[in-house]
Amino acid sequence: MFLALDPDEQAISDAAADFLVNEFPLERLHKVPRDISKLEAFAELGWLGLAAPESAGGSGLTIVEEMLFFIQNGRVAGPLEILIQVLAIAAAQSAPAVSESLICGKAGVALLVEQAADRIRLIGNADARYALAVSPRCASLFELNLANCQSVMCLDSSVAMYTGDGTMIRPVLEQAGGAVWQQAQIDVSAMQLGLAERALEMIVGYAKQRQTFGRAIGAYQAVRHPCADMAVRVETARSQLFYAATAFKEGHEDAVMQTDGARLLADRAAKLNTDTNIQLHGGIGVTDEHSAHLLLKRANLLGRLFGTSRQHMASLLDVAGMPREA
């Protein structure tokens, strides 16, 4: 990949877009309280194991192809369970039996986002067999018993979130190192870029149709200038993400710095673009019937996974040897 898609990569991106738009249109989130991940449907088409080795039942491709898939997944606010499943597959490469069950979609995974004292919090697959915890130092997989879990509300109502006591999980395996953490940064950044792109397309389409005083609202500076800012954020985030994915794929020494930078820019693009999309839609933009709020909620949820913007900025300052603010 040379910071632009070759024909094979474009074909993967187009195939992912066709599948997700048909099976998971954004409008579906108005109709169901919880997303339906259809793990086995994703597995059948090979989306779960894109970057997994062929010896483990995967496609033997790279993080670049995986990134392209998650950009399209982000554009439709696709199932978060797919992201968690893909990361769990990466963490389970040392356990072939577990990895195979994950790649074929037979076993689901929830993300362990909080573990304090004897309480845990998970998000994702409500029928999960495993729980995944990812940090910059390691990735851990746990066997999960959901018998005594309690469902709690999530900002994004399409995502299941629940709590329970510490007896719900039992360690299965641990992968040392930060490879899964870096993979998570790239995949989440890809979903955030997809959200930012979709928000830009949504408001540009509206600005061409909505008229006031006999003119399309896109003719007014108060609308077209924010749209231009949204486009700049998208292009900046995309360029950095493509470079970060290539650096990670090729094992560059600066890969950690590049993925932190990609995450910061994609997070900013997703949050600001989805918010601006709502503002420029005017009164209709804040209604529950419109889809704009679905993008904003997903952007805010993704921004809280695998580290915050402050943590990524601190990591960048550490790599650059610059002092942090007190």
Topology:
Blueprint: H1 7-23, H2 39-44, H3 63-75, H4 80-91, H5 96-103, E1 109-116, E2 119-124, E3 130-134, E4 138-144, E5 150-152, E6 161-165, E7 169-176, H6 179-209, E8 211-212, E9 215-216, H7 221-250, H8 255-281, H9 292-302, H10 309-320
Parallel strand pairs: 1-3
Antiparallel strand pairs: 1-2, 2-6, 3-4, 4-7, 5-6, 8-9
Defining key terms:
globular; 2 domains; seven-stranded mixed sheet; 10 helices; Butyryl-CoA Dehydrogenase, subunit A, domain 3; 326 residues; two-stranded antiparallel ribbon; 51% helix; alpha+beta; single chain; Butyryl-Coa Dehydrogenase, subunit A, domain 1
Average predicted confidence as pLDDT? 91
Give the H and E element order: HHHHHEEEEEEEHEEHHHH
The shape is globular
- What is the alpha-carbon Rg in Å? 20 Å
CATH fold type of the largest domain? Butyryl-Coa Dehydrogenase, subunit A, domain 1
Kindly estimate the percentage of residues that lie in beta strands according to DSSP. Answer: 5-15%
CATH superfamily of the largest domain: Acyl-CoA dehydrogenase/oxidase, N-terminal domain
Q: State the name of the first-level CATH class of the largest domain.
A: Mainly Alpha
Describe the structure.
α8 (255-281) runs antiparallel to α9. 51% of the residues lie in helices and 14% in strands. By secondary structure, the protein is α+β, with helices and mostly antiparallel strands. The protein has 2 domains: 7-176, Butyryl-Coa Dehydrogenase, subunit A, domain 1 (Orthogonal Bundle), CATH 1.10.540.10; 179-320, Butyryl-CoA Dehydrogenase, subunit A, domain 3 (Up-down Bundle), CATH 1.20.140. It is globular, with a radius of gyration of 20 Å. β1 and β2 form a beta hairpin.
